[in-house]
Amino acid sequence: MSLAVNMQPYVDPRDRGGAAQPMLIARELQRHFRVKGAGKGAVVRAVDGVSFTLFKGETLGVVGESGCGKSTLARLLLHLVVPDSGELVFDGDAVGEAGGVSVGDLRRQVQMVFQDSYSSLNPRMPVQDSIAFGPMVNGRTKPESRRIAHEILVKVGLRPDLFGPRYPHELSGGQKQRVNIARALAVGPRMVILDEAVSALDKSVEAQVLNLLRQLKRTLNLTYLFISHDLNVVRYISDRVLVMYLGQVVELGPAADVFSRARHPYTTALLGSRLSMDAGQRIEAPPLVGDPPSPINPPSGCRFRTRCPHAEAVCEARMPVLGRWDDRSSHVAACHMTVPDSGHSLAGSV
Amino acid sequence: MHGNDAAAAPLLEVQDLTVKFVSRDATVTAVNGATFSVRKGEVLCLLGESGSGKSVTLRALMRLLPPQAEVAGRIALDGHDVLALEGNALRAFRGGAVAMVFQEPMTALDPVYTIGQHLVEMIRRHKGGTRAEARIRAIELLELVKIPSAARRFDAYPHELSGGLRQRAMIAIALCCGPQLLLADEPTTALDATVQIQVLILLRRLQQEFGMGTIFVTHDLGVAAEIADRVAVMYAGRVIEEGPVADVLRAPAHPYTKGLMASTVHDQAPDQDIAAIPGSPPDLRRLPPGCSFAPRCSLATEACRQSFPEPVYPAPGRMARCLRVADVLPGMMKEPA
């Protein structure tokens, strides 16, 4: 298990709370976006009360369909989008509050890799300058920054003399994504948010980049938040998984548990929609019908009830709460069926 | 598994299809001698990564390539030479005999026309008739593709529909004139997983109902396993392996297919590296002289770098263009055909 690797005696001087203190705690994060032309006061509830804990040295996979708020969540964690409400605690310090950690400091310790490897690089800058930019604005000298850029390029498997002076358009998709990873690592972050970082790559290249990400995590002692819509990739790379639906967390738990014993019907449906590579095992009936509803006017009560095969009156009346999680092994789901006395006829059976 | 058996004559025959894009600086050979056929009622998946030439092949079949593309080879649909079509015959062919579903319905549909207007235009262009008759047919089609409250959705603009419904509307438009051949270019790639499987199952059902030959372009092995009868794997503009989907995915004959399967994340142990294919696909402006996969292939020998391997037939209905098939598929190789 990869956790064991991270328990080696290496100590990051910036690590304040020790291995037991979570890297990041999000409490009731909320962000709504106003929409024009959809009626007065209409808002998209992109992220609506999301709480979770990211432990040191782990990879937390975030899955969900488009519009479920997973990318907004990533941006909230870096204050690229400022939350309406909620609390963010980074290694014991509240983010953006007096006595806590400043947003600038947070961004030095948490970096992000985006999906579109081309648009996230400056097309008019050789990639070594793009990579050196971070260290430079953080006070390093130009030659020093260049040296860091070259070191990082080696770490991501690109020869600095060959690839450093190139412009983004002279690189393949996989090479560009390696550069983006290098740029994120250049400021020496402790945590990296990977927002669909391998989704645009071809399978053979995706495998190379996934291997690289795992190797970098080991050697640089990183913590990952890995956002993806690809369940197979999330299963492979994650220690724990967080499943989102319409701006809310519906399930959270260790990857092995969630994938083998999903507790929320939405997770079950997502897993049932995975295509097998065996033509003898075709899916005959789709696990769900219809598309996810609009996050502008989400259904009352449980947001999944409009597509859920087990929906009952209680699901419409009350919003289920995600149970309590205490440590890395907790497995919780926001579903009335998981609560013995919720009033659902199948309560307690899941 | 097959819709029809070998007795049926091929609906579509593609021989040595080559597409070159020539500019002052370089000549890009996007398709480089692709050969395959599709029988009536059969689903062929063109499987390949970006730059393998699968989408360009599809556009060549639909005659949608720009004039500067140099197309050579032979495309015959039901015995008729597709590359020779011109004028009215070409317009009747596109959308009539052959229809296409694109990856991104939002860009493929015209945002200033309603779904109904798209359908009515298509029906009247190809079948004639009055507006009212076309409207009735259009609503039937929307119901056929399982769009809920079809009569109301008839007047919706593309942006008012969800991604899944838009793609269903695209399929309805493609089916308007009962095409003999349906071309689908990654029709479910932009959709979410729970919606993708719905559209795949719908396409499979409609394909069986209509009995049309279908070419389904995808990069996703799972999609191919779900819908294809046969697969043709493309690499650098050539079909390098072909065969029944179950056989190819169970025991690939070409090292590239094998590598692609191994590098696709699928229940691998989380503590082990994925067997990635090293390197990246070749530059289509400067293809290597021999097998285009040789530079990335662990089995490549000197002979592989000399000339592009001729087809070998390791089993009935299977083809691979590789000199080392016997080593990729041990035990299955009989004497070379």
Output the CATH homologous superfamily of the largest domain in chain B. P-loop containing nucleotide triphosphate hydrolases
Supply Rg of chain A. 21 Å
- Low-confidence stretches of chain B at least 5 residues in length (pLDDT < 50)? 1-6
As an assembly, this protein is: heterodimer
Primary descriptors:
heterodimer, A: 350 residues, alpha/beta, four-stranded antiparallel β-sheet, 11 strands, 19% strand, globular, disordered N terminus, B: 337 residues, Rossmann fold, 2 domains, seven-stranded mixed β-sheet, 21% strand
Summarize the structure in words.
The complex is a heterodimer of chains A (350) and B (337). Chain A has helices at residues 2-6, 70-77, 103-109, 127-137, 142-155, 160-163, 173-185, 203-220, 231-237, 255-260, 265-272, 313-317, and strands at 24-34, 43-54, 59-63, 85-90, 93-94, 110-113, 191-195, 223-227, 240-245, 248-254, 332-333. Chain A is of the alpha/beta class and 350 residues long. In chain A, helix 4 (127-137) packs across helix 5 (142-155) and helix 5 (142-155) packs across helix 7 (173-185). Chain A contains twelve helices and eleven strands. Chain B has 337 residues and is α/β, with parallel strands linked by helices. In chain B, the strands form two sheets. Chain B has a seven-stranded mixed sheet with strand order 6-7-8-3-9-10-11, sandwiched between helices. A four-stranded antiparallel sheet of chain B has the order 2-1-4-5, covered by helices on one side. In chain B, strand 1 and strand 2 form a beta hairpin. Chain B starts with 9 loop residues before the first strand and ends in a 9-residue tail after the last helix. Residues 1-6 of chain B have low confidence and may be disordered. At the A-B interface, helix 7, helix 8 and helix 9 of A face helix 7, helix 8, helix 9, helix 10 and helix 11 of B.
